[in-house]
């Protein structure tokens, strides 16, 4: 961790003069957003079109037992009309989506706003014909193809609530999410090409749907056209239906607080929870942050490399950019296929102006050598962004110097599935960036650093503690699908009256914020968020496993790796084959992103006398940090710790 004295990078003269938000404007707008949030958000909400104007700006309560979050509640709008129809007069022929396929030889596609309108309407009409009505849920399990965006916008158009499941998730994980929100339809594709391989999405969906209600229908987009199994009573061929579907479909009038989507995300306990986002507040916030953080100007080509299966893809590939009438690039592939210059070739080919990716990708590409970057013309780049995990200064510097040639600001955006949009980030025309710092709160965001033990706010600088947010912002999640009590308990019970982020945080001597990582049992593997409890419950579901404890450990490329301590059933012998079997087992249960990196056989786990596993100790061992094991006197059997240290995996 650097501090206030480390090197800073002030905005260039050009950025300072021409960006949407200068240093002075930031101060003025931030002060206004805190002093008069009602007035501030009433004005900002005008960036979207309302079918019926709202009268009340907000109605919020963060008190445990009565948490409610309402923004613009009596207003009405349609999100798809905001992302498409309202742009048609001015930019019907402008490219809305540039689609770049996994295999560069296949050729890119440019989809205009007019085409986006027609395709979205077709998809909306097909969904309607399948019986999907306002308020119904649709699960989307798709490759990164334009049809994924059509499906999202089609749901928004007819008032259905989408829940996207990342295509890397297993059939079991998909089934749990379909059942969790009682979806009527699953939209999927035959296969998902990625990095030269193809995931059999339809076959996965078949396995998942075998565990779901027989009434759930499956709409299949032909991506590769390869053969797939077909169940006539349930499966519908999108490409056939689309030929006859009408290219107009009236957008349904939605209340601002009607849910736009559910997105399952990992928590520190239990199974993933369905984060619910609203229509009005979410869209205002996604659009505003997209425009201001990335300093998006009309005509720019903007590329976010995330997948629509994660919140970043929702807010910053689809909703934010399209609400702003932007040209957004959608990439099907991976950074290293056909080779490690793929990202930079795509930037050159499409003259990308703003590029937004994850630190894990930057670290992986940095390790491949500079020549992959230097052989590409990156002169179109104006701004770089990162998201998903803390970025180490080496990776930041490489990104800034080698990719950005020292000319592009790097916006390190801290936010969460729960927050809907950016919460802290340097703004490119306003702030002197510090490598690794999330810097400043976005408008309306009131970060508080609290003492984790007493819960008291730490005032003044520097400060080091846990991060809470004091007041609501329009992009905030509204509830957990079907479980408002869990929502309150998860986010509002630890620190009374505040939203608790689950992240640790420092504020340096200048008052700038640095995110230090999760303080709960959530880990961040290659920018993918995972609950250690999910991996544990997958492991103990294996009949040879008696007990398992999972923690994160520092990993050069992934940020964090998955370290598993496994106690076998008595009579079972540890072996390399069993290690592989358990690894494959977890991949199968959850998906490849949850593959254990290291599995240590643990004859015993460190437990308190009351039987609680002391994860703090397991974390320290996995981190190779025994000097500070802390108090082990409460352990039922302190000798297990010596055994675990003696047999540690990543020596
Ligand atoms: C972490 C992704 C440091 C953080 C948008 C947070 C970050 C979790 C940053 C949310 C950043 C995200 N610097 N840490 N710029 N961005 N995180 O829900 O721990 O997948 O709580 O949302 O990622 O992950 P999620």
What does this entry look like structurally?
Helices cover 31% and strands 22% of the residues. Strand 14 and strand 15 form a beta hairpin. It has 651 residues and is an alpha/beta fold. The radius of gyration is 24 Å and the shape is globular. The two termini are 24 Å apart. Residues 265, 310-312, 387-390, 412-417, 438, 501-503, 515, 517-518, 524, 529 line the site of 5'-O-[(S)-ethoxy(hydroxy)phosphoryl]adenosine.
Span between N and C termini?
24 Å
Structural class: alpha/beta
Low-confidence stretches: 1-5
Percent helix, as a range, is: 25-40%
Shape: globular
Taken as a percent bin, the fraction of beta residues is: 15-25%
> Main β-sheet: number of strands, strand sense, barrel status?
8 strands, mixed
Major sheet: arrangement of strands: 12-11-8-6-7-14-15-23
Number of helices: 21
- Write down how many β-strands occur, each being a DSSP E stretch of 2 or more residues: 30
């Amino acid at each position: 961790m650097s501090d206030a004295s480390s090197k800073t990078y002030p905005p260039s003269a050009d950025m300072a003069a021409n960006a949407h938000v200068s240093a002075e404007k930031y101060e003025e707008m931030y002060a206004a957003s805190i002093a008069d949030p009602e007035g501030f958000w009433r004005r900002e909400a005008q960036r979207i079109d309302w079918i019926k104007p709202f009268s009340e700006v907000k109605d919020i309560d963060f008190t445990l037992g009565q948490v409610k979050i309402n923004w613009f509640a009596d207003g009405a709008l349609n999100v798809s009309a905001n992302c498409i129809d309202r742009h048609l007069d001015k930019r019907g022929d402008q490219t809305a989506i540039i689609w770049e396929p996994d295999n560069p030889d296949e050729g890119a596609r440019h989809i205009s706003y007019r085409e986006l309108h027609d395709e979205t309407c077709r998809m909306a009409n097909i969904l309607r014909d399948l019986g999907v009505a306002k308020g119904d849920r649709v699960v989307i399990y798709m490759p990164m193809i334009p049809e994924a965006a059509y499906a999202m916008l089609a749901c928004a158009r007819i008032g259905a609530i989408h829940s996207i499941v990342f295509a890397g998730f297993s059939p079991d994980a998909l089934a749990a999410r379909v059942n969790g929100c009682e979806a009527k339809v699953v939209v999927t594709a035959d296969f998902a090409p990625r990095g030269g391989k193809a995931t059999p999405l339809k076959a996965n969906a078949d396995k998942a749907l075998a565990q779901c209600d027989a009434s759930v229908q499956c709409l299949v987009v032909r991506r590769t056209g390869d053969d797939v199994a077909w169940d006539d009573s349930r499966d519908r061929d999108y490409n056939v239906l689309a030929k006859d579907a009408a290219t107009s479909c009236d957008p349904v009038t939605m209340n601002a607080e009607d849910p736009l989507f559910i997105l399952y995300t990992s928590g520190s306990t239990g199974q993933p929870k369905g984060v619910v986002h609203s229509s009005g507040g979410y869209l205002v916030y996604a659009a505003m942050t997209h425009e201001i953080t990335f300093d998006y100007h009309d005509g720019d080509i903007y590329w976010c490399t995330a997948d629509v299966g994660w919140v970043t893809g929702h807010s910053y590939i689809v909703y934010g950019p399209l609400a702003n009438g932007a040209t957004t690039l959608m990439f099907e592939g991976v950074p290293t296929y056909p080779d490690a210059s793929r990202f930079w070739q795509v930037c050159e080919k499409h003259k990308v102006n703003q590029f937004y990716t994850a630190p894990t990708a930057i670290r992986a590409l940095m390790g491949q050598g500079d020549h992959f970057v230097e052989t590409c013309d990156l002169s179109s780049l104006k701004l770089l962004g990162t998201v998903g995990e803390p970025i180490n200064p080496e990776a930041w510097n490489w990104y800034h110097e080698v990719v950005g040639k020292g000319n592009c600001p790097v916006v390190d955006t801290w936010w969460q599935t729960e927050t809907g949009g950016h919460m802290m980030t340097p703004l490119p025309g306003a702030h002197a960036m510090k490598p690794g710092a999330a810097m400043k709160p976005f408008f309306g965001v009131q970060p508080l650093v609290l003492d984790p033990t007493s819960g008291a706010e730490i005032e003044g600088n520097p400060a080091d503690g846990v991060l809470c947010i004091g007041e609501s912002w329009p992009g905030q999640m509204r509830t957990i699908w079907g479980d408002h009590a869990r929502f309150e308990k998860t986010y509002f019970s630890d620190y009374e009256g505040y939203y608790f982020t689950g992240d640790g945080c420092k504020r340096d001597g200048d008052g700038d914020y640095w995110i230090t990582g999760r303080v709960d049992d959530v880990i961040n593997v290659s920018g993918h968020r995972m609950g250690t409890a999910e991996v544990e419950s997958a492991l103990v579901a294996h009949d040879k496993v008696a007990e398992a404890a999972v923690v994160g450990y520092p990993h050069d490329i992934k940020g964090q790796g998955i370290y598993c301590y496994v106690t076998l059933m008595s009579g079972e012998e540890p072996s390399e084959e069993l290690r592989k079997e358990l690894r494959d087992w977890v991949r199968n249960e959850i998906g490849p992103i949850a593959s254990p990196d290291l599995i240590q056989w643990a004859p015993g786990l460190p437990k308190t006398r009351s039987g609680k596993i002391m994860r703090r100790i397991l974390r320290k061992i996995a981190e190779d940090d025994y000097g500070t094991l802390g108090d082990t006197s409460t352990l039922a059997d302190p000798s297990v710790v010596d055994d675990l240290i003696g047999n540690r995996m990543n020596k």
